[in-house]
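Good morning,

Both structures are done.
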Amino acid sequence: MTRYRTIVADPPWRYTQKPTERTGAGVSAEHVYTTMTTEQIAALPIGDLAADDAHLYMWVTNPVLLGMRPTIMGELSPPDIARAWGFEPAALLTWIKSESGAGMGWYFRGDTEHVIFAVRGDAAIDGADRISNVFRGQRGAHSAKPDSFLDRVESVSPGPYVECFARRARFGWDYWGDQSLSTAAMADA
């Protein structure tokens, strides 16, 4: 089984008990894919995919980061989930969704999304390789992330690489999870 030095995870966070009636830009995640509570996400075998010294990049939205709607989403925080997978949270990265119009949101329209960076073992980023924790990129289809993010990951984190819940292929990466492009890593886990 391949043990990955870098894992990118975009968990299927639950936002509502059932899909909304809206369509188009206001559609809930539940219309697009099966979602999970934070407890179900924490129970995924992501830690089994990781090398002893590894990086984790876990995508989180504002409602998830703030622990909103715990009776629907679950009680665990994203840092709790990273720890359940065997990682220690170390930094927060922020994606500014450039010039692409206002996003969804319960109080304000979300034009940012965040990534918790966490480490396992001895997995520091060399001082000469450190880059800003803020990046820009165009918003795409529901849950799609900008290529500029994975470019950044590759510039500071070692391979081999796996993306959990990937939406599209990237050369040199494996994929794991429901709706992923390949289940090769999942079959090995």
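Second structure follows.
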Amino acid sequence: MARGQWVGVSDQRQAQYIVRSFLVLSAMPVDRAYLFFFNDQDEPQLHGASGITRNFNPKPSFYAMSQLFKTLGDCRFSRAINRNEGELYCFEYAAEDNSTRRVYVAWSPTGSAKSDRRVLHLPAKNVDSVVAMATTSDPPAPASWKKMTDGVELEIGESPIYIRAH
């Protein structure tokens, strides 16, 4: 295999897996989880493209992890709103300052590239913003959503989506 052609998973899929792994670990009795920095050269070998940077330039996983830390920085896992294997995950994170501020993170763990329009039943009364997972240095894109009586209707796919509420 020629240099630059190795693809175990795409850079987009790597970002999804890394962020979702941290989210799942946050719901477990784990004290810490680490992502070891590794710069890759996109080499055709096991773990040859597993870095969060390539040739010291950020990859989508770098930006996705940065967003995760910025968005959930002072929040802690509160509870699982949905935990349906192979269908839908939605976790609630509460601010440590005892405010009513919440962040919900939802994704589809189906292993397919498709997404579905779904209604998430959320306990929060007001949704402030809904943004997609970041994969570049640009601000994360706002996601299309519609307020429902007891939650939100939005497109949910493999990439985590962040719902800020109170």
